[in-house]
Design brief:
The complex is a heterodimer of chains A (about 800) and B (about 800). Chain A has about 800 residues and is mostly beta strands. Chain A is built from seven helices and 59 strands. Helices cover about 5% and strands about 45% of the residues of chain A. Chain A is globular. Chain B is globular and about 75 Å long. The chains are: A mainly beta (about 800), B mainly beta (about 800). Chains A and B meet through helix 2 and strand 21 of A and helix 2, strand 21, strand 24 and strand 25 of B. Chain B: Pfam families: WD40.
Chain lengths: ~800, ~800
């Protein structure tokens, strides 16, 4: 079983102490990536719910730098301590409350070990607490609790704050302060240097008229920055002069006297001054001070990373990131930091120059605005042979993602248009289909009409250049079905032929014309043109499919299925009549059966026998997706569980959150062969994937013609499993061994500055061309520009060698 | 209900403010305008007290570049000497008694860009002061508060024992004036007792133009900034260069030159420079090293100002912004322990954009006027009340609290709180800048048509006002008021370069007069019998050459012209014969009348309907009452609470009653004959409704209904008018119940008039609730003039400010609005 497609950006990542690894919260696991290659190295598995925080224990001494320990907190209420090189779980603390955020201030300000015994380690966790209130259903609220990590228990009775919703705790780089944003105010606590179970906290609040989104602490000064939903950045200086000063209050007594001398500060907030910067147009998500405190980094929904010089307010920008920014993390290496973007990408930045070194990208998450245009599926398409999935993305492209490797293969820009993350999408890629051999791609995109003007659908055919799935545009057809929307696109299994069906009541068969030379010597490159148009009683055509050998084309005309000869464009037969329009149509492998699914109020899943032209059997099931094995006679459906059954379901404690089931059928038998319960099935997709030759070794027991079944849920998290294996067959497939070897050789000295030297071999030349060495051949050794010159140790050897060999005059 | 007729057809071209200066005691601010005129504004702690005390018309052809108000002037006058420099190289002094511009330094041949006077507390306080500064700046842990007080005190000291003592002790030492010249020199002159400046020395000539100059607080050094991006520090005594700062980054020849437009030397040893690249930079004056640089302005930074405590700096520039910088002591060692030498940083705090055009000048003033005592009382009284009004301006505008005043190309002046700069919106000091004087002659003997005299800077217009009766509605004077058409009857142009100072028209409309800087002129207006609508203007040859005047008025029967001459006498001229009847000499006591005139200039004159009384008011608010029948001074009323008189007049009902409105928004009714405060005034003046005392804008006039039965008066400012009926009780009850509403409306008025439409609705509500005394009515557009046409109809002359802005020479600051 392979799982993947997790969100990399659900929580902030963390760098290891040597900045060579990046720990990313991916669902229930923590994935460790190499920062030099951007590939995954290992995984920390053990949590039962999404991991929300990962904290790497910082190295206080150079010796402890090799230690790779981290704390993780998860929504399952557990805090775990790991050695992430091994990877090995070392401790587990169960707090029994969903943890949304965790900070450990003691790790940052290491108190001096006074009596040899290390003091207790405390974590501050933002947990979700369900409150019982009379007259009200259980309502949850957020609380900041304190957890004694050394003694593995919650510090009793400590509840720093109670809020409506748990959020994120921000900690100052020195570990002295922690703070949260709560609606229109910031709440900041000072953590005592000697923390104990019953420590007393000094706290302040800072107010504003807008809702805060994020805050950041200055590493050395008492400066707090906060961003709000309107894009303003507020910068308080001298925060907490009154409250946090522990010394003699009377020295600073003058401050209280001239209370009105605090420009910009609201009310009685404890700050000296407040400056407002306004550059971002919409909410600020990222705020971070550079480690020397001279710069402030900010980012927001418009996807531009801004660096502010604190003293002067000058700005530098890193534009065109292309997606809203979510988190910024810095590493111990001052030149390396990461930003997490909403499109499931983590960019590694080289810091002073702000250039993106490399990106770690997952499947681009479905856009939240995809529901604007109705009548289209999610558009995800499985490439059966290559083990890829094609996902239309927000920025008008199609992303090809390898299911086996859990990594991005390529991205094809469908529409020549710049994507601005803040803007509303005006174009949406609705449908993607690949021919069986993967050489051709068909896409349908729709331009969303503005003020009901300018809506346009266009069909594009793409030709695959090479294995890397870099497609080049072959043909563009504007308005393939006039102003009607395209409901489906399907490719002929063998010859270059495709069919599109439309809600406008017709379908078109497209064929590719080979290269021809017209009479006026103009080269007409291969393009797709319309071969035939068909319609049936002006009914909207809702789905289309070719049979396995391509001899029959089935097109669903709302409630009936019409069968056509695609070559001659002759209506062969009309079968069936279901209650709701058919949305999915698929021939089952090479068998003479056709399966159709029609959701709606009277959902129906029907298996049609082509030989008898009648219903074989049918279920009243709301099938979200249907996938048929390519050769065999089995098919799988993704059925949504009816809402009513939910009341029954929770009795089985393990099935919480389950709303769908995958059923595997054989055409002969209406009893499913196997059933799996899944969650987030609404909008999910199913696909049979052919196992790649490499994998076949490991799936020795699986017949290759069955392939694997891939299920992708609405959040684009997928699982790849063998449908014929035993049910609890939790076979862990080790991934293709492309996991990078982290212990790559450290470059030192010359190599670290100038890179590896080209192999410098005198002997090699000598063996190839017989020649008499020039008497002063050392001159040639030293010739060339100085920056290309090899280090002296290397040159010296050659030099001496050549001068010693001078007497053996001839070679060969 | 009063019917309102509006007219917006007047031409109104106010002139931009080019320079500002604060008097030594901080109670007055001088504003120099682009047309060569100068205004003296009385700084007030509240919104009500702002009053344009004096307007002096100078040479319109010379463009002023900077203003300096030296702390002491000749003859020990408390006003000090106001000196201006001009682009043509002359330096002039503004005589605040004779109301004229005097050249004190003939053109030196090159333009003068900036002047700086030696700090006032130099020699005599030098030793003492320096020690203090040292303590405060370096050794004292107290951040600001203590320093404030001490310095404030010492400034007070120096103000009080002002000129006399100093002149006795250090008679030889004069204030030095450093002048930044176009040829790269800084010239130093002494401001001596004599009329002219005396030359002291010239600092060595350097490359480029010297654009800015300032003195160090101890007057030992002079800092000059030039057009090629250098700040130079000079020894004031030895006149040699101590060091030089290169401001222009990189110093590449490719870009345009960097101009240092303004410099400021702070007591803590920091120099602040403002340059044409939009950056404000802070330098260490000892070593000339850069401390902080802020480039928040998007254009030239024209002006800098520091709060009196020198811990805040304001900058203003051509992007219309005023930006606040604050010194922040960085408490890095945040253990709260005593930090011996905290690192101080100047940080950008925030900006306010009140101006629509470039800001040209900034100044800081402290309202310590003569109103102190009474104002304190007032505040106390309000505190005693149950529910003190929460009025935003009063929150920050207190006595002795420094304020920042900015002015620029949009001709307006704004006041800000220097301490709570970002918290409160600025106060628009003059909603109607350079308002043209107007006078309405009712019931002229040309068909009883009212004639309107409008005095522009170089001409007089006489309009005939016709009221369209059908279009009249009786709603408040908003947009829906009836229109009044004005037909031009005559236009009298004066000689170029001779600005009209004052003008008047007789109530019958037959004669009018004006005065420029040379002499007074009298004209006769006639309607020739031959043709229709043909008006002729004839200049009357007077037998006696009249002196030029500060103020003019006709007696009510149009038989006599009263001229308040520049020689501080009031001349009574018979209009028919043109003969001089009498010359009054205003004086404080009766027996002084024989002495030479020594009273401040008369700026306002009112005559009673029965022709018996003449009230002459000088610029400080003293009132002199003359009896025109006996030709003797009748009474002298000393300035009322020390406030200036903003408007006044004799009631038509009883000619003995003189109504006076002061800049502190008090209304007084005097019984002139009995030489006492009128009965109404005795009872009510000190208990006027609070909402009247917070009247939005400066009261600029009074208008009486032209009938002998009415006992009411309309008081108006550019923003609102108010009806006071002396016959009705002053009900203070409704005051409290309306308090909230009023507070709301007034705040809305403060907020730059954006919400005035709401306000109007509110006003309408008040109106509908019944006729009340102190009834308010707000205007949508700035109003220039309000006068009764008849008992029940009112002429309002206004002009939408947007139209005025279009006529300004410079375009407004282009602001890119996000998303467009």
């Amino acid at each position: 079983m392979i799982t993947g497609g997790k969100s990399f950006v659900s929580s902030p990542p963390a760098f290891s102490n040597d900045a060579k690894r990046l720990l990313v919260c991916t669902g229930n696991t923590v994935s460790i990536f190499s920062t030099s290659t951007g590939l995954q190295i290992s995984e920390l598995e053990g949590h039962g719910a999404p991991v929300t925080s990962v904290i790497v224990v910082p190295a206080s001494t150079p010796a402890s730098k090799v230690l790779c320990h981290c704390w993780t907190a998860s929504l399952d209420g557990k805090i775990k301590f790991w050695d992430f090189t091994a990877p090995e779980l070392m401790r587990t603390i169960d707090v029994r409350l969903p943890i949304h955020s965790m900070v450990i201030p003691n790790l940052l300000n290491q108190p001096t070990k006074s009596n040899g015994k290390s003091p207790n380690l405390f974590a501050y966790i933002y947990v979700e607490v369900v409150k019982q209130k009379e007259g009200q259903p259980n309502s949850s609220c957020g609380q900041i609790r304190k957890c004694n990590l050394t003694q593995s228990r919650l510090a009793g009775g400590v509840n720093l704050a109670e809020t409506h919703k748990p959020g994120c705790i921000t900690i100052s780089p020195s570990g002295k302060y922690i703070g949260i944003c709560e609606a229109h105010k910031l709440r900041i606590w000072e953590i005592p240097t000697k923390d104990s179970d019953n420590a007393v906290y000094k706290k302040i609040r800072l107010h504003h008229t807008k809702t805060f989104t994020t805050l950041a602490f200055h590493p050395t000064e008492r400066v707090v920055a906060a961003g709000d939903v309107t894009g303003r950045i507020l910068l308080w200086r001298g925060v907490g002069h009154r409250t946090f000063s522990t010394g003699d209050k009377f020295i600073n007594g003058g401050l209280n006297k001239d209370a009105e001398e605090r420009p910009g500060v609201r009310g009685d907030d404890d700050a000296d001054s407040c400056t407002t910067w306004h550059w971002h147009s919409v909410e600020v998500n990222v705020l971070f001070f550079s480690s020397d405190g001279a710069y402030l980094f900010s980012g927001g929904r418009e996807g531009v990373f801004v660096v502010w010089q604190l003293d002067t307010g000058k700005k530098k920008f890193l534009p065109r990131i292309g997606s809203p920014l979510l988190y910024f993390t810095n590493s111990s290496d001052p030149s390396l930091s990461s930003i997490s973007c909403a499109n499931n990408r983590i960019h590694l930045l080289r810091m002073p120059s702000m250039e993106i070194l490399r990106s770690i990208s997952g499947i681009k998450l479905p856009s939240s605005v995809s529901d604007i245009y109705e009548g289209s599926g999610s558009g995800v398409f499985f490439d059966h042979t290559a083990g890829l999935v094609a996902v239309p993305t927000d920025n008008y492209s199609v992303q090809f993602y390898s299911l086996f490797n859990d990594c991005e293969i390529s991205e094809v820009q469908i529409c020549e248009r710049n994507h601005q993350p803040g803007d509303e999408a005006t174009v949406k890629v609705n449908l993607v289909a690949l021919s069986r051999d993967g050489s051709t791609m068909g896409t349908v995109e729709t331009r969303v009409p503005e003020e009901r003007i300018g809506g346009l659908a266009s069909l594009k055919f793409w030709a695959c250049g090479s294995q890397n799935k870099d497609f080049s545009l072959s043909t563009v057809i504007y308005e393939p079905h006039r102003d009607a929307g395209v409901s489906s696109i399907a490719f002929h299994p063998t010859c270059p032929m495709a069919v599109t069906s439309s809600y406008g009541g017709d379908f078109k068969i497209w064929v590719r014309t080979p290269d021809t030379r017209l009479k006026d010597q103009m080269l007409q490159s291969s393009g797709w043109r319309c071969h035939a148009v068909g319609s049936y009683k002006k009914k909207p055509m809702t789905a289309a499919a070719f049979s396995a050998d391509g001899s029959v084309l089935a097109v669903a005309a709302e409630n009936v299925i019409t069968l056509w000869d695609p070559e001659q464009n002759i209506l062969v037969a009309v079968v069936g009549d279901v209650l709701e329009p058919i949305t999915t149509l698929s021939f089952v492998g090479k068998s003479a059966y056709l399966v159709s699914a029609s959701p709606g109020s009277n959902p129906q899943l029907t298996l049609w026998s082509m030989s008898k032209l009648s219903t074989s059997w049918s279920y009243k099931l709301n099938a979200e997706d249907v996938s048929c094995s390519l050769d065999g006679s089995t098919f799988a459906i993704l059925a949504l569980l009816p809402k009513t059954s939910e009341s029954v379901e929770p009795a089985e404690g393990t099935l919480q959150g389950v709303d769908g089931a995958i059923l595997l059928f054989n055409v002969e038998n209406p009893v499913p062969l196997a059933t799996w319960f899944v969650s987030k099935a609404q909008g999910g997709k199913l696909g049979f994937i052919q196992t790649s030759p490499k994998l076949e070794d490991e799936f020795a027991d699986v017949k290759p013609d069955h392939g694997l079944l891939a299920y992708m849920n609405s959040d684009y998290e997928y699982v790849l499993f063998d449908p014929y294996g035993e049910k609890d067959h939790n076979q862990s497939i080790t991934r293709e061994q492309n996991l990078s070897n982290l212990e790559e050789k450290e470059k030192i000295g010359y190599a670290s500055i100038y890179g590896e030297l080209a192999e410098f071999s005198v002997e090699k030349d000598q063996t190839q061309i017989p020649y008499i060495p020039y008497e002063k051949n050392w001159e040639t050794i030293f010739s060339g520009p100085s920056h290309k010159l090899a280090p002296l140790t290397k040159l010296c050897l050659d030099f001496l060698e050549s001068s010693l060999e001078r007497r053996s005059v001839t070679v060969e | 209900m009063v019917k309102v007729h509006r007219s917006s057809s007047v031409e109104w071209n106010p002139s931009p403010v080019v320079a500002l200066a604060t008097s030594a005691d901080g109670s007055q601010v001088a504003a120099a305008r682009g047309d060569g005129s100068l205004e003296i504004w009385l700084v007030s702690p509240g919104s009500v007290g702002w009053h344009c005390q004096l307007t002096i018309h100078g040479d319109p052809n010379s463009r002023m570049s900077s203003l300096v108000w030296c702390p002491w002037g000749p003859r020990g006058s408390s006003l000090g000497r106001l000196i201006s420099s001009s682009i043509d190289g002359t330096v002039s002094e503004w005589d605040l008694y004779d109301l004229k511009q005097k050249t004190v330094l003939d053109s030196i041949g090159v333009s003068v860009w900036q002047m700086a006077a030696e700090p006032c507390n130099n020699s005599q306080f030098n030793v003492k002061k320096e020690v203090k500064v040292f303590e405060n700046g370096h050794a004292s842990p107290r951040i600001n508060g203590g320093e404030d007080d001490e310095n404030g005190d010492s400034e007070h000291d120096s103000d009080e024992n002002d000129s006399i003592e100093i002149h006795d002790d250090h008679g030889i030492e004069y204030t030095r004036l450093a002048i930044a010249c176009d040829d790269g020199c800084v010239r130093i002159y002494n401001i001596s007792d004599s009329e002219k400046l005396t030359y002291n020395r010239t600092l060595p000539r350097v490359s480029g133009r010297t654009l800015s100059v300032t003195w160090s607080p101890d007057a030992r050094r002079i800092y000059s900034g030039s057009s090629d991006g250098f700040i130079r520090c000079w020894d004031a005594k030895l006149a040699h260069e101590i060091y030089r700062i290169t401001v222009g980054l990189g110093g590449l020849g490719s870009g345009p030159d960097l101009c240092i437009l303004s410099l400021l030397a702070l007591r803590c040893g920091t120099i602040v420079s403002a340059d044409s690249s939009g950056s404000v930079q802070f330098w260490d004056s000892q070593f000339g090293t850069l401390l902080q640089a802020h480039s928040c302005h998007k254009g030239d930074v024209n002006a800098l100002a520091a709060a009196p405590s020198h811990n805040r700096v304001f900058s203003a520039g051509s992007d219309g912004q005023v930006i606040l910088y604050k010194i922040s002591s960085d408490a890095t060692s945040s253990d709260g322990k005593f930090v011996s030498d905290p690192i101080k940083k100047w940080i950008y705090v925030g900006y306010v954009r009140a101006h629509t055009h470039d800001v040209r000048a900034l100044t800081v003033a402290v309202p310590i006027s003569h109103e102190d005592v009474l104002l304190d009382e007032k505040v106390k009284r309000i505190r005693g009340r149950k529910k003190p009004l929460d009025f935003s301006y009063h929150k920050w505008a207190h006595l002795g609290v420094p304020m920042l005043i900015s002015a620029g190309d949009d001709t307006k002046l704004f006041a800000y709180s220097a301490k709570e700069f970002t918290k409160f919106s600025p106060h628009d000091i003059c909603p109607a800048p350079q308002r043209m004087p107007m006078q309405l002659a009712l019931k002229t003997f040309f068909n009883q048509t009212p004639l309107l005299l409008i005095q522009a800077s170089y001409w007089l217009d006489i309009y005939c006002v016709r009221v369209k009766n059908d279009a009249v509605s009786d709603v408040s004077p908003g947009s829906s008021g009836g229109l009044a058409s004005t037909d031009l009857v005559a236009k009298i142009k004066c000689k170029a370069s001779r600005k009209i100072i004052c003008s008047t028209i007789s109530s019958s409309g037959t004669s009018f007069a004006y005065s420029d800087h040379v002499k007074s002129n009298l004209f006769e207006l006639k309607r020739s019998k031959s043709g229709k609508n043909i008006w002729t203007v004839k200049k009357r040859q007077l037998q006696w050459e009249l002196p030029y005047a500060h103020c003019m008025a006709f007696s009510s029967d149009s038989s006599r012209l009263l001229i308040a001459g520049h020689d501080r006498r009031i001349y009574v001229v018979d209009v028919e014969s043109g003969e001089l009847v009498h010359a009054f000499t205003p004086c404080r006591r009766d027996q002084d009348e024989e002495l030479p005139p020594g009273e401040p200039p008369i700026t306002k004159m009112f005559t009673s309907i029965d022709g018996q009384w003449l009230a002459a008011i000088n610029c400080f608010g003293d009132v002199y009452i003359f009896n025109l029948e006996t030709l003797r001074q009748h009474w002298f009323i000393s300035r009322l609470d020390g406030a200036s008189v903003t408007a006044g007049g004799f009631t038509p009902r009883n000619s003995n009653i003189l109504i006076i409105s002061t800049s502190s928004n008090h209304v007084y009714a005097f019984d002139v004959e009995a030489k006492q405060l009128g009965e109404w005034s005795m009872r009510h003046t000190f208990s006027l409704p609070r909402r009247y005392q917070e009247f939005p804008g400066e009261v600029i006039g009074l208008s009486f209904p032209p009938s002998s039965s009415s006992s009411s008066v309309i008081v108006y400012s550019p923003r609102a008018m108010c009806l006071i009926d002396f016959g009705m009780p002053v009900d203070r009850e409704d005051d409290t119940e309306l308090a909230n509403g009023e507070e709301l409306t007034l705040r809305m008025l403060q907020s730059n008039g954006k919400l005035k439409r709401k306000l109007k609705d509110h006003e309408l509500e008040i109106r509908h609730s019944g006729r009340k005394n102190f009834e308010f009515c707000a205007f949508r557009d700035p109003v220039l003039f309000v006068e009764h046409l008849s008992r029940n109809s009112l002429l309002v002359i206004d002009k939408p400010w947007m139209q005025v802005v279009k006529t300004l020479d410079t375009p407004p600051v282009h602001r890119h609005i996000f998303g467009t």
